[in-house]
Amino acid sequence: MGSEEEVHEAMTSDQTCLFVGPYKLEKTLGKGQTGLVKLGVHCVTGRKMAIKIINKEKLSESVLQKVEREIAIMKLIEHPHILHLYDVYENKKYM
């Protein structure tokens, strides 16, 4: 997981644009029990990604542990029919 120094803030705002790491957030693709999924566009390459944003403050400790376990498992999986986890950015409030 990225440190706060690497991320400086997992989410920063400049009036109309939100960013997570090098990704500019665009439209909302969906909402789930643990977070929000937005379309992200890499600022350099223009590659489009699904970005899941989780507000850690709204999760119980047990749910947060499950999310962290899911991330650890997804980092290990490489399969053409399973989504690939590219990056994890985290600060005190979001992951």
SSE topology sketch:
Elements: H1 4-7, E1 12-14, E2 17-20, E3 23-31, E4 36-42, E5 48-53, H2 61-76
Antiparallel strand pairs: 1-2, 2-3, 3-4, 4-5
GO molecular function, one term: ATP binding
Organism: Romanomermis culicivorax
Catalytic activity: L-threonyl-[protein] + ATP = O-phospho-L-threonyl-[protein] + ADP + H(+); L-seryl-[protein] + ATP = O-phospho-L-seryl-[protein] + ADP + H(+)
Description:
The protein is of the alpha+beta class. The protein has helices at 4-7, 61-76; strands spanning 12-14, 17-20, 23-31, 36-42, 48-53. Strands 1-2-3-4-5 form a five-stranded antiparallel sheet, with no helix packed on it. Mean pLDDT is 84; it is low at 1-15. Strand 2 (17-20) and strand 3 form a beta hairpin. It has a single domain, classed as 2-Layer Sandwich (Phosphorylase Kinase, domain 1), CATH 3.30.200.20. It starts with a helix and ends in a 19-residue tail after the last helix. It catalyses: L-threonyl-[protein] + ATP = O-phospho-L-threonyl-[protein] + ADP + H(+); L-seryl-[protein] + ATP = O-phospho-L-seryl-[protein] + ADP + H(+). InterPro entries: Kinase-like_dom_sf, Prot_kinase_dom, Protein_kinase_ATP_BS. It is an enzyme of class 2 (transferase).
- How many strands, what sense, and barrel or not for the largest sheet? 5 strands, antiparallel
Q: How many independent structural domains? A: 1
What is the CATH topology? Phosphorylase Kinase, domain 1
Q: Provide the residue-averaged pLDDT.
A: 84
Order of helices and strands: HEEEEEH
Overall shape: it is: globular
